[in-house]
Design a protein that fits this description.
- By secondary structure, this protein is an all-alpha fold.
- The protein has six helices and no strands.
- The protein has a domain of 98 residues: Helix Hairpins (Orthogonal Bundle).
- Helices cover 82% and strands 0% of the residues.
């Protein structure tokens, strides 16, 4: 049991290191939080929730794999190497393709003009929630840009 707990601890340390150092990962995390939050405005079946949660997990996992590969490549050499460039580019492309598929799925799941209008009116008629939403956007931009992680990279 102690070995399994250590494995969880190691995994969370890796996640935290990636969050601190990778702006793209922070972007995906923020996007996931907003997708989940706005999903509550929709009548989501268990299947739709499963699709959303699996896509979020896949994108974050792909970004973590991309980070791991880039870190390993940087350890192998800091000089320009066409093979290293190819590995990094292909790894980034995998994240891009998965993200594009998720955007397409989100369009299919969430594009409902009546529901979008309802959400817009919900925030307009609740100024306190609108202000909180705007504050969350500002905090999100600061988080993505690394303002909360400056000076904490390993």
């Amino acid at each position: 049991m102690r070995k399994q707990l250590k494995s969880f601890s190691t995994a969370f340390q890796g996640l935290w290191q990636a969050i601190r150092s990778e702006g793209h990962l922070r972007f995906h995390i923020v996007a996931a939080v907003y997708v989940i939050t706005f999903s509550f405005f929709y009548e989501m079946s268990a299947l739709r929730w499963a699709v959303v949660l699996i896509l979020i997990a896949l994108i974050i996992s792909a970004e973590l794999f991309n980070t791991a590969l880039e870190t390993l490549c940087d350890k192998v050499t800091t000089e320009r190497d066409p093979m290293i460039k190819k590995v990094k580019d292909v790894s980034a492309a995998a994240v891009l393709i998965l993200s594009a598929a998720a955007v397409g799925a989100a369009f299919l799941l969430y594009f409902d003009l009546e529901r979008i209008n309802y959400i817009f009116n919900f925030f307009i008629s609740n100024p306190v929630l609108l202000i909180l939403f705007i504050i969350s956007l500002i905090i999100s931009v600061l988080f993505i840009s690394g303002q909360f992680t400056k000076g904490k990279k390993n």
